[in-house]
Amino acid sequence: MVPKSLSIILAVRKYSLSLQKDELMEELIRKMIHDLRMQVLEKVPEYGTFSVVYERYENPDKSIALSHIILKVTAVKYEGKETQRFLELATMNYPSPYGCERTVGFGTTKDILRILEDSDESLFQKIMKAIPEMARDLEDA
Description:
By secondary structure, the protein is an alpha+beta fold. The chain has helices at residues 4-43, 109-115, 121-140, and strands spanning 53-58, 68-75, 85-92, 99-107. The longest helix has 40 residues, at 4-43.
């Protein structure tokens, strides 16, 4: 039988590790948003197509079934939509061939930059909510 004091210490340690994982994930998402914004400023034109611009990081929280988290901006490739862009969140769980994508923003380059503003907590919250949902989708695949 485990002494009660040891059980409490183990529970506190588990809670502390959980907080550290949450903090790492939050830091990662904030960094992704910031770094992608810097790339959009440099590489995404107001008009026309361009190569996909993205930030891709390994998932620091091994308790959810994702190996990588990707935030990217892509051009809409339809005639008459040359100024429109998608802001997408993607998750992968290598070595599985499956991935999951979700549109988290849409609009012109200026609209995407506005969404990616460091002060915009709505994108951060949207991504933090979507990641566990997307992990569950990948588990079901």
